[in-house]
Amino acid sequence: MIDLLRCPQSGKSLRLENPGGGERAGETGALVCSDGPQRYPIRNEVPRFVPESNYADNFGMQWNKFSRTQLDSHSGHPISADRFCGATAWSPADLKGKRVLDIGCGAGRFAEVAARAGADVVALDYSTAVDACHANLAHFDNVLVIQGDIYAPPLREQSFDFVYSLGVLQHTPDVERAFKCLPPLVAPGGRLCVDFYEKSWKSALLPKYWLRPFTKRMPKSKLFSLLEVLVPTLLPASSVLGKIPVIGRQLKRIVPVANYAGELPLDHQQQLEWSLLDTFDWLSPEFDNPQNAATVRSWLEDAGMESIEVLKAGHLVGRGVKPKRLDAAPT
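Below the sequence we write its predicted structure tokens.
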């Protein structure tokens, strides 16, 4: 899939230099810009277009610690597939043989869904989560994992039939700017799907937003160690509150812990693991910027998308189709 890659600084094509790796060419070496000095290293078959350490370090840490937790192939349940299909409304038949771009792939939970459907998948993440993603999906010949920046995607424009970013954009420094980088990557007639935490008065009351001013400044390893101690206690307390008739579902949210009891078909150990993972995900990111439906719709409209839908499907989902005629979109 090297023809899909572009120098993020010049937009020019790239060539492979000094590929290595024995049976799998491209395990090491570099991608070099065709008309300039820019050179991007390849390590463990993953092209690296950004510095290894950046504002998304917490995600690199969590996805390498929980590299397989949310993969359907590991949990034994179609949890990621159900969320993917519920958000995008794309079927495996839609994806088969198509080019698909996963922005913010993490450990590859949704990229695995697309790859299993037979799509040619490019999975991009800003953090070292790409190492977990590559390890999880290396057995797929139809997946390319790259470490890159959403604000300067190292990808050829108008190349992907399907582009999605699930659970990611609210964690970027400028959410609108991040969103606006996605439509140019969609091919004419292609589809785009994004989702966000929803901004509302209810979400403003969630305990994580009271705690984040402190927890996001803590050393990530210290925060994780603290949660390892607290989550096994907080999770049962949340579950007890959740059993109170009528108000339990809302009441359990006053406990600052991710609790999927009664929502996801996980065993006890899996519940603890998912809870620790997602509680860390709540409290550690440097940025957390929820959005409302009107804003998401306006972004899709400004991008010239057609068949726009904005709805609740777990998170706040926005999706649309790029016009087949490019001159149909606003300039």
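The radius of gyration is 20 Å.
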